[in-house]
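Notes from the pairing session

We agreed to fold both candidates in a single pass and log them together. This is the raw record for the first candidate, unedited. Please don't reformat it; downstream parsing expects exactly this layout.

Candidate A
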Amino acid sequence: MILKTIFWDFDGVILDSMAVRDWGFREIFKEFTPNQVEDLIIYHRANGGLSRYVKIRYFYEEILNRQITEAEVLKYAERFSVLMKQELTNPKNLILDAVNFIKQNHTSYNFHIVSGSDQNELRFLCVELNLSSYFLSIHGSPTPKKELVSDVLISNSYDHDNCCLIGDSINDYEAAKLNDIAFFGYNNPSLQKLNERYISSFTDFS
């Protein structure tokens, strides 16, 4: 397998943001009971590759058993984004093992970000963290990750055999498989049970 193109997940692979995003969901839903919000946190952690739009709707429809309008989803998502822009621009949250590999190898591969994070917020964070120049494109939600990968593959006429996706969640794995590209798990040992390639450290990745 000769890799030429790498699709990168963002949260948990490039940025250690889980604790901050946990706090963000607790903050935007603080009027609800702690038990209800903790049920959302469990879902959020198990589905790192899904967008906040999906998680907000899940909270209402599956945990609260209530209907929620698209306008309400967008309102919560915007509140969440404001908090994330405030908290996630600190370089201390960068995962240096991955970031150093990206900086050292961005001219040798085609790098693209495909993330469950809100696209506008994602691009803002990449600018603030001085990451944008290392990627040919940066894509996020509300478009589902499987569609983001497909769109980039098609628009660049990439050979699927030379592409992979690096991610830390089962949703990343599914997006790779649905698009018939290789998957490398990272920063989540539970992904090793998938019998797929797994990166323990980028110092050993080639």
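Candidate B (folded immediately after A)
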Amino acid sequence: MQKLSVQAPRSVVMIRPQHFSPNPATAEDNAFQANDALRTAAAIATAAHGEVTQAAKRLEAAGVTVHLFEDESRATPDSVFPNNWFSTHSGGHVALYPMFSPSRRKERRQDVIEMLKHRYRVQDVIDYSGLEQDGVYLEGTGAMVLDHIERVAYAARSNRTNEVALERFCTHFNFEPVVFDAVDAESRPIYHTNVLMCIGTDFCLIGLATIRDAARRAEIAERLAETGRTIIDLSHEQIGDFAGNAIELQGRDGRVVALSSRALGALRPDQVAALERSVTLLPLNVATIELAGGSVRCMLAGIHLAARGALKASGANPAEAALLSAP
């Protein structure tokens, strides 16, 4: 039987939006965003609602516990991406993050934190959101890709990743920061690290070509190779198709990698085979969500906390089950 891994959480938080739309307030520095002129705003919102619903069901069917929350607000178009405003960590720690765009700061919700305290063993909540007043930002596990095994935080510099906040996080949570500059094929800074990099237990998906400095690129490649992981190098085109925006999770029958159908379609057969040596691939259809410039990894806030006894015994509670079965 496959051993459990601290890299692969067994539970996630998802947000199902009622009024999803690509956010014009975040488009300036997010080149991954796109428009859909063929559908009305209402049609896009309805499609996004359905994509989250089906993604949650597929994850649950694979044995991943999904805590699904509703978002009724029209003021939070990016709420479907909760991994940016909070993260959880072994030992019972939760972090809240400072967000670059004022429109995204409204996404933080106390009911999510209270659920975590009720269902999991939470010792403390460290709130960095006050750094917003100083123009200092660190958008959670979008800004950072965390190696929970080696205790390394990889981070590409951007408007949304401030090194002062990163150092503070790494000091509190015992990670080593590894910072670099990353750009897309048009030499535009990449807004979030998790679109170019995914670290699993036995593999790493990474767009090495995005790392501007050749010496730094070689250092990071060597650092990752030293962990014994299989390095799967992604092209600029594959990064543009969200092939790096994936997450390893613990399913019922072993570890799975959740990624979008578009991302899976962008991978070469040899890359798929390399992944399938240690994980099962779980593609999710989130084409509408991807209009907002993020994909499956952004949609899933992994829970690296010890569950209380009731959750271990029974899985999702009736309220959560009802949400998952809703149309």
